[in-house]
Prior knowledge:
Oligomer: heterodimer
Strand content of chain B: under 5%
Order of helices and strands of chain B: HHHHHH
Amino acid sequence: MVPMLVIVPFFSIIILNLFPRKLMQYTSFICLGFMSLAQVYLVLARPGWFWYKKSELWDSLFTFRYSVDEITLVLLLCIGIVVFISLLAARAMIPDVRQRVNFKNLLLVSLIGMNATVLVKDIFSLYVFIEITAVSSYIMIAMNKNETALEGAFKYLILSAIATIMMLASVSLILLLTGNTSFAAVSTGLGVAGQSFFVRIAIGLFLCGLFIKSGLVPFHAWLPDAYSAAPAPASILLAGIVTKVSGVYVLIRLVTSVFGLDPSMQGLLMFIGAISILVGAIAALTQTDFKRMLAYSSISQVGYIILGLGCGTPLAIFGAVFHLFNHAMFKSLLFVNAASVEKELGTTDMDKMGGLAQKMPVAGISSVVGLLSTAGIPPLSGFWSKFIIILALWQSGRFGYATIAVLASLLTLAYFLSMQRKVFFGKLRGGFENVRESSIGLIISQLILVAITVGLGIFFPLVIPWR
Amino acid sequence: MTTRLVRSVAGLALVSAVISVLIFRLNSPLAAVFELSVCAGLISVIFVTTISFTQRLTPERLEERRKQRFDKYLYLPIILLAVGILLLIFKPRMDFPLPPVPKEQDARNIIWHLRHIDLLGQILVILAGVFGVVILFKEPRK
């Protein structure tokens, strides 16, 4: 029944668009909300009838070779949560009914693309679904059709197209070298082909493409413009899950299951991770736009995930996947905070803000939770994942990288405290007397994400089984 | 290198036609047909149709474009030279073992029975494209 995660949203797009537009705003909300929450339930409850039972009817009509493991389940959980949050934010942030319905159509396409990306076990199908997610992202970023939105979407389109060419060239080379595209066959075939020049080229091309998709330094040029120019629900989706699935998850999957982690790849990943951590953190310090600051912060935090992946020990990879989940939660929370502020003030320029926590207590308190988790302050969830990555680096003798990871956390704390002082705390600026807490959709989103961040942090030893 | 978009599209169609001939010579007639009909045919028609909706450049812009059209290719000889030198230094091994040629399968069997998920992917990309056109290009009713 696992293919239902892809097939049900697909038929939903077709059926929902048959409704009149006035009715479709409600039916699409109910449908998307139900699908995303059902996905969360299915991952948490793990009913046997869904994960282990095969449907003969669907198998006879539709062949979908998929694989599910713990990493897949973590990503499916992230997708369900962030899509639901983005749906709630769309209700609050997109007043025009037509635009909102269009956004939900794209959200459904994105949902299918991301679900299929984490389920497939074929390198060509992986490429196809990464592109589906990317195409829906381009359109989401450009939705407002103003100059900055079109510029951001165009930059993302061009750099993503370069990534696409690299990945497709790599898939072609891999097919030539191994004669197959399934993960298992590619892994075996690359082992037989050895470390030849073309094997290195194939792996290198795919990795470069994924670095662009993940927004890692030095391929991050598109990310701040895309995140800041996109409408708020699109920013939440992009920052919260799209780059995680189409870049970071694929990197983790291919490196651990297909290409293998040899010393040169470890060195490359750790170097790129460390550079991303530092450049992202330093760039975030200088930003005056709320969303751009969060975008650079994302680059820095994704660097931690790649650093953990490069370390390669089971503890490090566990830390990387855990930080991927945590980052999806606290980054989505921070972007929801930015959406709340943008909705009330009409701007994301931090120099024009001040003292907003007095008028927007939910946004103020939840932003503190988000920032503390990002900076790795206990007892929040971000502390545990960063601690595990740093511990793994230290245990494997990578003291330099461990030190960089710790020092960058201090930089993270610095730019976020600066943001808090400018935006939420201090004296309330003149003209903000009528500002009030944002709509119920954004409040619920913030509360859900705070509950996850705090709950997972406090109950971490109970939630994660130790062996 | 041309200043006129239609000529660029014609060049793209010509390249696609040459590639389809190469693919045909490599014993993949079905892939060659797809390449010719989709890339050299359908895509060129779509491009030309879209260009027909645009306005011509003003004489000043056209002159500016004519002067600058070779600027972006200035680094190409340098890049090609650098790649050639790197290949001479590293001398890549070309004698790696290729996998055995699989028994010939009917392309229809592969597309319709083995690659269902990719067909679904294609439908989704088309759907996404349709949404893109509706969202970005359709004017709202007044």
